Amino acid sequence: MASSSSTSAAGSGDGARETTTTSEFVATEVSGSHVLTINGYSRAKGIPTNEFISSSFTFAGHSWSIRYFPNGSSSSGGTAAAAAAAAAASASVYLACADDVVARFTICFLDEAEERPICSMSTGEFRRMSEQRGDGFQMFITRVALERWRNVRDDRLRIRCDITVLKVIQQNEHATTMAKYVDVPPPDLFRSLGYLLSTGDGADVVFEVGGETFSAHRCILAARSPVFRAELFGPMKEGAAASVGIHDMEARVFKALLDFIYTDVFPDIDEGETMAAMASHLLVAADRYGLERLKLICEEKLCGYIDTSTAGTIFALAEQHGCHGLKKACSDFLMSGNNLTAAIATGGFEHLKISWSSVLQELLVKLIVKSSS
């Protein structure tokens, strides 16, 4: 049984060449047997419950063990059927492999006179097993059946395990080179939309922000922001207006917001401005206009700017705008060492103390719990 996967192309010419690899696997079966012989069967019956006679052997590159419990084992494998069989049995045989293996098994008792198997039990299909996971194959048998068979004659018992192991082998790997005639460029929709924003071609709405004007396209804004969709196409007054005023936002922040809406790329930071400041302003804008991805990007960036001087301000920002990841980052930082004490002493913590006293109380409770543990 073999399986292979490949990709191919036909053709010839002067085009570029592309390399494709192919792999072929072959699944094979390895079969063998192991016989456990117990001399002094009648004496072995004196071994207590849960104690066993065992034999270890190697087969198909794996370590195996077979165990004979003369008076049974209380371990039944966990199923109701196995538990019932264990309760009714007087003896059991257990086969296990130390490694993770896929195999099928048959356990049988050998007729002493004719070497033929009697009272066999088999898994039938292949199954995965590993003793490390507690997997094994167990056969239960009653004492009445053992005494009745001819294989206890001469006070000897012989148990045979027939094992078939499934092995999957990588037979070979090939590298083939085929002609490549077409080079497909990466997606560049963001460039086209960014160009549309920068030129203002086809713009149908103008925003007035902080003394500056920005031309934009209603459809693009509505597709990207549920808030813009409601404002520009809903019953709100901005829907019919050719010019819309944006308050409580700086022009540079709104420009960065538009850049992200059109390109889905975090905007470049102007010279003289810090990443932390822009990320903070954009987080507020993203929350205002329902731009969840931009909000998460800003959260991620602000996590890298948490220190004793900024933790209070960033914590308050995270609390105000429901930024759970950023809030957790601030909390973990403040709970580490003496960071909370140092942060409270800074001016950046004043806003948190005044506006979010409940949050500060929460931090102090955590600190007390940590100190007492």
Automatic annotation (TrEMBL):
Residues 1-11 have a biased composition (Low complexity). Residues 203-264 form the BTB domain. Residues 31-163 form the MATH domain. It comes from the Eukaryota. It holds the Pfam family MATH_2. Residues 1-24 are annotated as: Disordered. GO terms for biological process: protein ubiquitination. Pathway: Protein modification; protein ubiquitination. Belongs to the Tdpoz family. It comes from Panicum hallii. This is BTB domain-containing protein.
